[in-house]
Amino acid sequence: MASLAQQFTGLRCPQLSSSRFSVKPKQTQKVGAFASPIVSAVAVSNAKTKDRLELKKMFEDAYERCRTAPMEGVAFTVKGTVFCTDGNGALVDITAKSSAYLPVQEASIHKIKHVEEVGIVPGLREEFMIIGENEADDSLFLSLRSIQYELAWERCRQLQAEDVVVKGKVVGANKGGVVALVEGLRGFVPFSQISSKSTAEELLDKELPLKFVEVDEEQSRLVFSNRKAMADSQAQLGIGSVVLGTVQSLKPYGAFIDIGGINGLLHVSQISHDRVSDIATVLQPGDTLKVMILSHDRERGRVSLSTKKLEPTPGDMIRNPTLVFEKAEEMAQTFRQRIAQAEAMARADMLRFQPESGLTLSSDGILGPLASDLPAEGLDLSDVPEAEEV
User: Fold this and answer.
1) Which keywords describe this protein according to UniProt (predicted)?
2) pTM of the entire predicted model
């Protein structure tokens, strides 16, 4: 590596900590009731000599490593310009005595067959990391993958701190879960952290919404949760939203439904307009169904669900659940419109007692100025019917 050291001048070895080589004074050992000054002086002199020899040896070893292997344990980068590519990599001009080579496997954090797939073409000027030397011709081996690898870990730490949902492509599996690719890094998703009951084969090559559970570059541990990501997205859904769920368990009072990491209760009274005496005749654990959110208490983590509100006609959930799921979004839209109308009526009723506001409500529940042909005392809402139960 002497030639390499000559090519790159100004390389410094890290300073050795002075505390590492501090010499502690030796205590004088007493003989009988008195300490011998001569024995003490000899002991201190021998100890200091030994420490000096050890210190000298450490400095000599450090100097030898810097002289013969300046890159060992020290990663550094150089600027270079690609001037030729082939099927195995690219030649890079780094303004040294000899050229440098970028192998295709070191060209990207992603698996590629040719360097041009990731934009490495003649004329490209980039910063490369030196990873080795070819002793036969003193040329260097370069890497972009190492730089991208460090940046990917930094990006994952940032995304974890921001607690965001990312997309990960499933690229493999084992008995404990699946392997997903995020930011070019392979991470693990345990089966216990996957919201659906899909098998590993069914998930292969699919993209999953994920949240970071653990990001540990030193241990090369990257762990994700699909359940947390789904729970985060479900938390954004409002009353009247239709979600896909899986029946987890049945109780005498209702069924617990997994809606992507959140357990919601489908009460027996909210299964159908017709009376359900035995829930097991309608639902079974593992069934997939569409449910509508009736309420969501985020502080207590409770979600109330309904299929009753999705029935086109009373009893459809018992007689023809497939029809209920086909019409779910349409029925939910009707439900939301009824809620909006009820809220508009409530707002209009409040304005009835505030004629000085000069505002009125349209049929769509939009607040606006009073029309000129309306009485100054406000609207007469005495004939407005009561909202029906929905």
Assistant:
1) Ribonucleoprotein, Ribosomal protein
2) 0.49
